[in-house]
Design a protein that fits this description.
This protein is mostly helical and 171 residues long. Helices cover 63% and strands 0% of the residues. The protein contains nine helices and no strands. The chain folds into two domains: 1-75, no CATH class; 79-167, no CATH class.
């Protein structure tokens, strides 16, 4: 019985090592660099990540992948992309990003004369005329930023914002 346990633990360690190698060299750079990747690429990467979690936890394909992700303490790629996009939005609004990105966004308080609740940190959403526009960073980033709690939007440093993001549940 002990031999089987040792063999299984070696197999688990090998699978975990393989996942980390593949994740760090293939999946992670793509999702970190391009949090707004095309839908077909992002869905393929998500499927690969979920299958990797199932293999590492030794679960069959018909069990929900969320159980495997929870067991490993991982987040799904959609959540990771949302957090990356939120961090980028924080950088844009706090002048830590290039001007070409900061020019895409404007605060509601700069557009309207009304003193609305939360308008000091809310962004004006551009009016999308196409589905393509709804998937753009200028629309989706502003929509994501406005969906964050006001405590998160009021953070002054990136490190405190990241801590607030960890407490916020996405999707």
């Amino acid at each position: 019985m002990a031999v089987n346990f040792i063999a299984l633990s070696k197999l688990f360690i090998l699978a975990l090592y393989t996942y980390n190698l593949v994740s760090l060299q293939v999946s992670k750079p793509i999702q970190d660099t391009y949090p707004w990747t095309a839908y077909n690429i992002s869905s393929t990467l998500a499927r690969i990540s979920l299958n990797q979690a199932r293999v590492i936890t030794n679960r069959s394909n018909d069990t929900p992948a969320t159980e495997a992700l929870a067991e490993l303490g991982w987040q799904n790629l959609e959540t990771q992309r949302a957090k990356t996009k939120a961090k980028q939005m924080f950088k844009v609004l706090h002048d830590m990003a290039p001007n070409c990105l900061t020019d895409l966004f404007s605060l509601k308080k700069n557009i309207t004369n009304y003193n609305l609740r939360g308008s000091s940190t809310s962004l004006q959403l551009p009016l999308p005329k196409t589905e393509f526009m709804k998937k753009s960073f200028s629309y989706d980033g502003a929509k994501l930023w406005n969906s964050l709690p006001e405590a998160s939007r009021d953070c002054t440093s990136l490190s405190s914002f990241v801590r607030e993001l960890e407490a916020h549940t996405f999707i």
